[in-house]
Structures are given as C-alpha cells and as structure tokens.
Amino acid sequence: MELRHTAEFLGSHQKAARALPRSFFRAVVLATAALLCAGAFAQAQTVTTIYNFADNGTSGATPWYVTLVQGTNGNLYGTTYNGGKNALGSIFNVTTSGSQKITYSFKTGTDGANPTGGLTLGTDGNFYGTTQQGGTKSMGTVFKVTPNGTYLQLHNFNAFIDGAFPWGPPTLASDGNFYGTTSGGGINSNGLVYKINSGGALTEVYKFDVTHGANPIAPPTQGTDGFLYIPVSQGGTSYCGTIVKMSTSGVINNTYNFPCGLGGSFPIGPLVQASDGNFYSTTQDGGANGQGVIYRVTPSLAVTVLHSFGTTFGDGTFPSAGLLLATDGNYYGSTTDGGASGDGTLFNTSTSGTYSSLYSFNNSANLTQTSPLAPPVQGTNGLLYGVTEFGGTSNNGTVYSLDMGLAPFVTLASFTGKQGNTVTILGTHLKGATKVTFNGLAADFKVVSDTYLTATVPNGATAGPIEVVTPGGSLSSRKSFIIKH
Description:
5% of the residues lie in helices and 37% in strands. With 485 residues, it is mainly beta. The radius of gyration is 21 Å and the shape is globular.
C-alpha cells in the first residue's frame, strides 16, 4: 500500500512532486525502522479508534493530509485519497460514535479524483474542497458538496491558465470568497493563489516566482488584519520555503525566508492565529535534528522556533500539516513518524513553547492507527477527532478520538459578519436554548436542531465571544466574532 500510494503521487505531480525533499517520502512511505523500544514510552493519553476504513464500495481508503470538519448535523466530514465505489477517492461523514457513510464517491475522474486535505464548511452549510487530480484537464478541481451528497463541480484547473494540483480545500475569507493555492501551474509551474466564490467564478490572485516561494501546499490563513498569510513549501533565498503576507488582491506586503537548518524548512501546514495575535505552525524538515519544528510567526513575519522534533527519547518526527488551536489555548498536532514505535505521535504545545508528547501510535501489535498526516479537529462536544493514513483492521486508515477533558463549546463557519446578518452557530445539545449573546448583547435566534441554530447579529454588537445558554449550561465560542462595518 505505501509504495503504491507514493507511486501515484510521484506519477501525477510534475515538478512540484519531483522536487519534494527525501524526508517527505520517508514520512509518507514509513520506511524507517523503529529504533525506540515500544514499552519505554509511557502513554499520557488514550486514543480510541472509532472507525476503520475498508477500501470498498461503502468505505474509502488512505485519508491524506485530512483535517476533519464538523457539519451542521454534528457529523464529521472528510475525504479519502483512495477507495469509494470507483477507487478514485471519496467524501465521507462519520458520527462521533463511529457510524460512517460515503457522502460522495468520485466516478470517472472527469468529476475529480484523489482529494486531499479535507473540506471547508461554508456559511451556506455546504462543504467546499479540491481534488488533487482528475477534472477535464486531469489537473484537479474545486467542488461543492451538500451534507447529503449533492455534488457540484465548480472549476477544472488547467495549468496553462489557472493552476494545477491543489493539495487542500480553499479557506473562507471575511469577504465571503474562498482563497486557495495550487502546487503547480502559474509561472514555470511554481503554483499560485486563487479566489473562487460559491458559484464557481475563479480568479488568479498571485503567481509564485521562486523568489517569494514555490509550490505551495498549505491554504491561506486570513489574519484579523485582513491579510492572507501563506507558508510556501519551497523557494525563497535558501530554497527551504517562505511565508508570504499578501492582500486579498494579491499585493505582497512581506516575505519571510526559512533559513534551512535550525530555522526549519519545507513548511506545508497552514498557519493558525492565536489570541495573542501571533500565528503558529510546523515545518516538516529542519530544526536541531533535521526532523521538523514548531514555530511562531508574528504579523510582521518575525519567526521563532519553539520546538525541534526528535530532541528527546520517544519524541515524534516530521510533523506534517500544521496545528489545531483548541479551547484550552494549547495547540495540538501530529507527527508522521517517531514516538515509541516509529508510527507517529500526537502532541500539544503552549504558545510559549511548552511541549508535551501525548500519544505514540503503534501499528505492530494490534493493527491500530499509524501515520497521522494532519492535526485533529475539536468537535463541539470538546473531544478531538483525527484520521490516520494507514493502520486499522484493513490498513487503510482510521478515524480516532482523543479526550483531553475539554468542555463543549459553540463555533461558526465564519467569525465575521455585519449587524443584521444571520449566522449559523454549531454546537451540541442546543435544543431548549434560552439565550444567545454577541459579546454580552442579546440576539434573536432560532434553534433548528440539537446541533445548530441561527442567530441575527444584533444592532450595536461589538467584537467578542458568542455565548449560548442551554439547559445544560452556557456554551462559549473559542474565537471572538468580528463585526464588519
């Protein structure tokens, strides 16, 4: 499975794929021997497998770089690179108790094939994503899918016109558009940034030129200042990757060049902004041991390395697709390798850099999870949920949960809106809710189901948290809602 999967990747990504560092393939193929004793690393937390992918007509296989996303029905949605009815990949949903259904199986390839990175929830309740391959030009697509599986192909990429081979879903920005990256196309196949609306109208925003980076894998992150912040996997002065800060119209404001070595290299995970205003993420390579780092970057693009992987006995190695900011204020992530059994780890870190190994995956003893390629997501019930690329009863990957004892909360697809706008708020056990407030100001609302309600942003509302009062207690949002004027 590992060699076939990597061969598919190599055969389809032209320059971007051929230029990837050896450590990337080492992480994906899992070719390293476990040098650590499995019994010598004490587990701090327990991970529970809630679903095993089976690679058949009713189940996908090998979810690749997928962070799950919660829908309005409370289910978790994601994509698999392989499997499904036609072995071209799938969109799936799974309940928090582990009941899985395929939402959509890619059919002929012209509708897209081999999706990576997962999905983005739109304010309309639908999901937006990309396929890495397929489409009319076999260079990937952008699509929209409803929670029940109605599929709409929004755009077919054509490298000679508008990019090729996107790695993940576009990000919803405050202007209502989605912004994404393609790893190929553009100038000399260096990749680009695009904008697309929910109707499928796509516009090129910026073409990478190596000087500012090349072959982006991570999607953009919009900061509270409105700028897009994008880690770019390669290019820059040392060809070890960059971070670019640009306007939504594509005007570069600033660029940071990763220095290789101790400073990290090959950034492929998106940035996540904390309440301190800084952004946090990982590089897959570099650091004190050449096995990746956790870093912090300010809005002015000053970078500080917080942790070098592989430093201590049992530490993980080669973190992949960035971090999750949970409601406890810590960042959670995964490594594809390392740990007590060489099968990857889960970890968390504070914004000051206090690092803790939480769990070592071990596939050798009981076919449990192995090789988590992306960070988990936090469900509104407080638990963390993630996927592994391999492992499980069929070695086609798993969905797992991690209970850190975190409380339930509420969340939104977008934390920006104008006074008078109607927004959708996701949560758990919302039936019987008696009050919704925006930074303390009461709002009109309607409970639609136990997992979501709609509310009108009240006149006079100011930036701050959203709170929902339910029979079980008060639920607060983990981010501040920003009022647009």
